[in-house]
């Protein structure tokens, strides 16, 4: 077509970044490896849960794809689109992989589905160092677009940013040119946005655990369509009436407050201790610290006071019945109650058997949540990015615990030195849930040695972790 408009500036900027930018600096690359192995470990742990496992495998049962993509932790060898779905679903299922919090929220390692699938299917053997580069770039695209664009306030889900980032990096990994990367990104924006209804009452359900898998797989599908010769739509963002900004943003403009580099990967948040929605992590840490003091006085509790930031209140302040694990892991009251009761929280605490404990709902009914404006300001401060909460328990005799305040959870960059050894322990434990001891030890040894990890080809890596 000779009369095609110029690419919207953001589309062109993303394509240039993915096609040409060099990723320098040890911090971004070592953090990318940590993000990858942590996400993969979360996927291995998720395979223990039947509700996750039932979604995986070929669309037509019993079929396999010669030369396809092995899905880690499983015997499946699938086409790259379905493999991306499976990997993305495994990674996201337990809400335990890395997180990015800004005006929009999300989990940048959700893009690992597209990245591993595309890298495995790419012409010529890529290395895991190539995969790390793609991870840094996918994190950056998703995270920078999340800094000042709040899709959640429009009722839309953050997985649209997974689709955009996955389409961009998958196209590059599959051998696409700068123009083809741009075209794939236009298709990702043409898809519009998914509704957040599956994350909120009364509709909360397990789709929120496979929505990112669906988005990352869609990114691979769009990449492959463009590589097969499908045209792009360069003015998808700016076209009046019909474009993304007119329809999805009600005439607003996508904001890009900083150039694409490696900022997001270097500052990404890791969920290390607990599989809970990230906005609840600090309140949960506080509750766990209070557990020894309150566990023997549960019947004497009069009120549990939580001070937190506005985003936590908007997403996970939830009363009334909780119908399934997806409902429970996005309820701050449930998460804090479990922490006070048990002094910890695991994925099993969201299952029906654990939720049947009547003490949880009794404690939920006594929780009062309020916003502390300083916490909300610090949450959006680019030099802090805190996720602060404070918890205090008051008793019927008029006494109370001290206020326990946690500004930065383990896994925040402010606590990175403390967190990384724990992240490695988490990975070892998660691998051990899926593989025999000697195999698990071999996987951990290769994945936690940066030089050994980056030297592997993608087929070597997938052979190591599949089966």
Strands in their spatial order, largest beta sheet: 6-5-7-8
Strand content is 5-15%
Oligomer: single chain
- Mean pLDDT over the residues: 96
Q: What count of helical segments does DSSP give?
A: 22
Structure description:
The chain has 467 residues and is an alpha+beta fold. Helix content is 50%, strand content 7%. The chain has 22 helices and eight strands. It has helices spanning 9-20, 26-46, 50-53, 80-92, 112-121, 128-147, 159-173, 178-190, 207-227, 244-247, 263-267, 281-294, 310-316, 325-328, 332-342, 352-355, 358-364, 373-380, 416-432, 437-447, 450-455, 458-465, and strands at 69-70, 77-78, 100-101, 105-106, 301-308, 367-371, 389-395, 404-406. It has a four-stranded mixed beta sheet with strand order 6-5-7-8. A two-stranded antiparallel ribbon has the order 1-2. Strands 3-4 form a two-stranded antiparallel sheet. The longest helix has 21 residues, at 26-46. The radius of gyration is 22 Å and the shape is globular.
